[in-house]
Amino acid sequence: MKLQTRISTIMSIGYKPLSEQKIAKQFKNIIAGTMSICVFLALSSCSQPPPPSSLTSILESGVLKVGSVYGRTTYYNGPTSPEGFEFELAQGFADFLGVKLEVYPYYSYRELLPQLDNHQVDLIAANITMTEQRKSKYRFGPAYQSVNFELVYKKGEDRPRGIEQLEGNLTIVANDLYREPLESLIDENESMFWTETDEKDIEELLEMVSNDELDYTISDSNILAVARRRYPNLGIGFSVTETLQIGWLLNKDTDDSLRAALIEYFGTIQSNGIFSALEDKYFGHIQSFDYVDTRAFMRAVEKILPTFRELFEAYAGDNDWRLIAAMSYQESHWKPKATSPTGVRGMMMLTLGTASDMKVTSRIDAEQSISGGARYFSSLLRRIPARIQSPDRIWMSLAAYNVGLGHLEDARVITQSQGYNPDLWVDVKKHLPLLRQKKFYRTTRYGYARGDEAVYYVDNIRRYYDTLIWLEDQTELPSINDLPADEDEDEVEVEVEVEDIVRP
User: Fold this and answer.
1) Are residues 371 and 344 in the same domain?
2) Active site residues
3) In this structure, are 69 and 190 located in the same domain?
4) Residue 446's domain spans which residues?
5) Which of 79, 264, 395, 404 is deepest in the core (most CB within 10 A)?
6) Cα separation of 68 and 75, whole Å?
7) Is there a domain that residue 488 lies in?
8) Is residue 68 part of a domain?
9) How many domains does the chain have?
10) 22-59 pLDDT per residue, tens
11) Low-confidence ranges of the chain (pLDDT < 70)
């Protein structure tokens, strides 16, 4: 099944548009050079002029046609507009060229390939790995990410550490993205059996492994990192491949003009920080996986959150109630009487000063704490410079809630002094930990701070928030009662003590 999405206007991704005057001017020089060559060749030949280059065809039509597949890391329909890492990269490339974007999303990679073969799309942006076999059939744009393919099993079952230890059904998505990694493991004299399906996508297969409906599957590491936040009982048996690079797929007949434009585009967004910001938006908060914490959070969602959900919804204001709920879980694990050694208390762990400012008379009253914490967070959002767009302003406001607005501003000053963008969270988070170092904090206005804890704080909230959004779409909660411990870790169940967190 195929759906066509036409994007007629530049989509906002929470960062400055890529088609700024400077970039446009730079790229016009490339276009002019390419077209000059075409004109020269046409005038210097007595035969029929050659067909326009791949890039010229796109520019003259005013449309960039991109094929993709549905998925959390590629393309999906968000609450108000399309979203996905690959989609936003493609939208950025269309903006860079000054053309409209048309996305053709399919439900399987196998359905999508003929569209590229028949020149129905200009390129495919779908998390495609650069294997030698694929390079012999197609061209690639520049590499921009790397992944491993992992053998996935359910925790609690015997962990396979090699293909010879597989006992049960191995099912993969029916295309060479998943088939090639398996075939690379098998020697000429070995035999191995697996099942392929085109009725399920990789996210569905991972859910089946989690639900004990399937023994094994294979997933790339990016998709698996997202899935493990939702299904914490997914385990990694072994790596099926070495690290593989990812790039956009081009038709074998595509000339160098389009690839040159892609190299220029990716070079630009990597140098100006846009690519890092996008990576952080989709993957930055899920790279580390805490099995015990994920399990504890899923249990709390089932057993504790229903008691307080109406309060989060009532007092969230213009914010998403799930974000406020995620903040509260990070602060207190939804415990109204939680206390820290530093003296902060309650569901939202308010200081005495903040409670007074927010007219909170009892910090251990859940309703007052949630109301006061939500209003205080909104006040921080308003105080972040207006030029900083979402989601960066949200993540910076969360950091300010933890470490204080003054320390956040100190970190932004350091970020700028080091040649990075103080308006991008991905850059600021790299420099917040420097507030611990004397050579940096002695020159700041507000001095020493545990900035590294603020980064950890924001990443945790983003993971909880992402999980709550996903759970809202589920008809029932995943089973979380008897999840086994990770075989490679010694798990100790203890009462969670509220962290001694930094407060302004």
Assistant:
1) yes
2) 331
3) no
4) 291-472
5) 395
6) 7
7) no
8) yes
9) 3
10) 455 555 555 555 555 444 444 444 456 667 788 999 99
11) 1-50, 79, 187-191, 285-292, 474-504
